[in-house]
Amino acid sequence: MFEKISDSFKNAINKVKYFDDEKSLKKATAELKKSLLKADVHYKVAKELIAAVELETKQNGIGKENFLKALDKNLNEILSEAGNQGFVFASKPPTKVLMTGLQGSGKTTTSAKLAHYLKGKKKKVLLVAADLQRLAAVDQLRQLGQQTETEVFFKENSDPVTVVKEGLKRAEDGLFDVVIFDSAGRLAIDEKLMDELESVKKAINPDEVLYVADSMTGQDAVKTADSFNKKLGITGVVLTKFDGDPTGGVAIGLAKQIKVPLRFLGVGEKIADLEIFIPERIVSRLMGAGDVEGLAEKVSTVIDEKKAKEITKKIKKGSFNFNDFLEQMESMKKLGSLKSMIGMIPGMGNIGKELANLDLDNSKEIIHIKALIHSMTQKEREMPDLLNPSRKKRLAKGAGLSEVQVNKILKQFKNAAKMAKKFSGKKGMQDFQSMLGQMNQGGGAIR
Fold first, then answer.
1. What architecture is domain 95-287?
2. Which of 80, 218, 342, 445 is most buried, judging by how many CB atoms fall within 10 Å of its CB?
3. 212: phi then psi, degrees, rounded to nearest 5
C-alpha cells in the first residue's frame, strides 16, 4: 500500500535541495500537488495542504528537513482532527455497533474481522445477521462466525428490524460485551436502503454507526460516506482493501472532507488483517518510514514470549527442527497477510510488491513442505539428520513428490536454519542490513 504516493512524496522532498531556494520549493510543491491529485485527493484538500506546507517551510527556512517536517505535521493534523481511532466502548455493555456500507465493500467480512479483533481483547462478542437482502449474506456471516469462534444470531423468514431487536435481547441476556449488527447494502445508494437502515438504527439505538468503505473506489468512497453521514450520522469509517490501494489518498479525503474519524483499516483478506487507524503511523508509512511499532504490537498478540525465547535458543544451538517450523507457520498465519507486515518495515515497501501474491497457506512451495513434514515420523521431524536416502525415498512417495523435490526442500531448510543461526548472533542485525543493502544494489527484489 501507499507505493505511489510514498514515491511521489520522496520525489517532492528531494526537489528541495538548498536552503532559501524558493525555486526548488516551487518545484517540490508542484510535485506534491501532482501526487495528491493522482492519489484521488480532492483538489480543494490538496490546495489547502500545499499552501500550509509552503507557508510553514518558508517561516522555518526553506530546506529539505523543514519541508519534510511541515508535510509530516500537516498530514498528521488532517488525519487526526476528526476524533477517535480504534474501538470505543460504551459506558454500559453491550456496546452496540451498526455496520453500514454499499454491497461489495467488505461489510460482512469486516464485521467478522472486528469480532476477531475484540475477542483478542478478551471481549465477549455477538454477531447479528441483519443483511436479509443479499443472497447468502447470512450464511457467509455464520461461516465467518465459526471461523472466529464467535456466536452469530440469525432468524430465517423475518425482517431486519425484528432480527436486530431479538439479536439485541440475546446480547443483553447473554451478558455480551459487544454486539455487531451486519446490515444490508446495495450496489448504489437508494431510498429503500436508507429507510431500512433508519428503521434498524431506531430499533437498536447504536453506540456506533460504522461506515465500511472500499478504498479502491477513491473519491467515490468519500461521496458515498458523505451521503450515509447526512442520513444516518456515522461515527466512524473502516477502510477496506487498503493493502490494494497504492495511493492512500482516500484516507486524507475522508478525514478532511467528511470530518468523521477513520477507525480501522482492512489490509488483507484474512480475518487477522484489520489494523487500528493511527494517524502518526499512517503518515510514517506514507513518508516511506514504515511502522515498526505497529508491527511489534501485531507480533506480540500472537507470539508467546516464552516460546519465542525457546525458539531463539534452538536456532542459536542449530537444533531448530521441522516441528518448530510447523509451529512457526501457524503463528505466522495469525499475523495476517505477509505483504501488510512487510509494508510496516522501513525501506521494505518495494519488496512488499514482490510478496503481494505469496500465500502462507496455499503457495505451491508451502503445500509441498507441509506434505513432506506430515509424511515424516515424529523422530524424523525432531532429528532432520536422520533422513538418509532410503528414508527420503519413503517420504517422496508419502508426500507425492519426486526425490529431487525432497532433496531440494531439505537443502533449503538446512540453509535457512544456518542463516537464522548466523543472524541470531551479536552481529545478526548488522549482517541482515548488509544483506538487504546488497539486494537493493542488485535491484531490490527477492527472487
1. 3-Layer(aba) Sandwich (3.40)
2. 342
3. -95, 115
